[in-house]
């Protein structure tokens, strides 16, 4: 944590602990009993919460399994990316938005990353469901992406995008690249106890793979 950042209060810490407990329960249930058996009720029971509380943190069981951020957290993600947009390549900023919205972050504990990797290997269709949730947020996220592009363009003295369509196109390209990168990561990464990649490395691998895919695609279209 940044030394200058305010420490989270008791309420925030308790929410973070509850969220982590739900995620761990969801992942453990899928690995031990299978995806179908890991219902919201079963996850809630293992996490020692009510199903009603579960939906205060996650929109579905798949979201809990993969750590997908709730819709209300999108604004936090965008605020962070907009504050860094002057330093970041705009494509990198958009990839960060997609990854953070989908719960692919550097802060996730390494063991949890590896267990999720095993789930994606066993149930690759869960990734499609994950991105269906991203698609449901498309309009709002596309608006945010348009802001990133416009701010970057204005910094360079250029005319920024004149509609949300530009943001939607860039978002779709970056989201497709992240999806391909996640599936490639799941297929090729090591999962044993001696695997070299902790959680932070996994996120970096996905980001770099997605970025390479976007840049290669743009070069071929030029």
UniProtKB/TrEMBL annotation:
Q: Which Gene3D superfamilies match?
A: Tetracycline Repressor, domain 2
* Residue stretches making up the HTH tetR-type domain: 16-76
Keywords for the protein's UniProt record, in alphabetical order: DNA-binding, Transcription, Transcription regulation
Named from the GO MF annotations, one term is:
transcription cis-regulatory region binding
InterPro entries in the cross-refs: DNA-bd_HTH_TetR-type_CS, Homeodomain-like_sf, HTH-type_TetR-like_transc_reg, HTH_TetR
Q: Which residues bind DNA?
A: 39-58
Which spans are transmembrane here? none
Tell me one Pfam family matched here.
Answer: TetR_N
Name this polypeptide is given: TetR family transcriptional regulator
Organism of provenance: Streptomyces fagopyri
